[in-house]
């Protein structure tokens, strides 16, 4: 199990800023998104555009996380004006 930090609209949709997820290994951005969507289907539309950071480094959909994962975060796109 991994603690995953959520920001902006994701945190709003789920009602908290951190969730515990069972994530398949090897961990990639795609497996993190799939685990969140499986537990919280209402996030599907937002997840497509989210960035995933593992150990404070953005990773691609296929990039394998290092063996030691201390932090996972999902960052949705933000807009401002």
From TrEMBL:
Coiled coil: none annotated. It comes from the Bacteria. The keyword Ribonucleoprotein does not apply. This is Molybdopterin synthase sulfur carrier subunit. The keyword Repressor does not apply. PANTHER family: MOLYBDOPTERIN SYNTHASE SULFUR CARRIER SUBUNIT (PTHR33359:SF1). Keywords: Nucleotide-binding. InterPro entries: Beta-grasp_dom_sf, MOCS2A, Mopterin_synth/thiamin_S_b, ThiS/MoaD-like. Belongs to the MoaD family. CDD domains: Ubl_MoaD (cd00754).
């Amino acid at each position: 199990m991994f603690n995953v930090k959520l920001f902006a609209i994701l945190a709003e949709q789920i009602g908290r800023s951190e969730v515990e997820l069972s994530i398949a290994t090897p961990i990639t951005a795609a497996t993190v998104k799939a685990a969140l969507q499986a537990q919280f289907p209402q996030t599907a539309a937002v997840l497509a555009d989210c960035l995933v950071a593992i150990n404070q480094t953005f990773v691609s959909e296929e990039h394998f996380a290092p063996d030691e994962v201390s932090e996972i975060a999902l960052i949705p796109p933000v807009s401002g004006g």
